[in-house]
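Hi everyone,

Forwarding the result from last night's run.
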Amino acid sequence: MKIYNRMNLKSLKVLGNKQLEELAEIFKALGEPNRLKIVMYLLEGERYVTELVKLTGSTQPVVSHHLKILCDAGVIESIRKGRHKYFSITGDWVKELLRCVIKVRFGEIY
């Protein structure tokens, strides 16, 4: 039985416009491959911008732009420690969302 067959999809119908807009922002933020790559790295633990630049192979301005979009959507958060601004996932829900999508789409967890 697939995961989405066990979900109570009726509950999606009772979401208000504000919740639907927030949900759409989350999916929009995760819908860009480079942002998704950043999130996958952050699932391993908090990182600062320079680390993410090296890991992704993108430039600092591009990574910073993606981080802002992910922060605005509530997927990640930042905290300043000394001279560095560290980024991390806002909660286990991000990992669980990705795990669910990967399992439904690819049939296994990587």
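Helices lie at 3-6, 17-30, 33-42, 49-56, 60-72, 92-106.

Cheers,
N.
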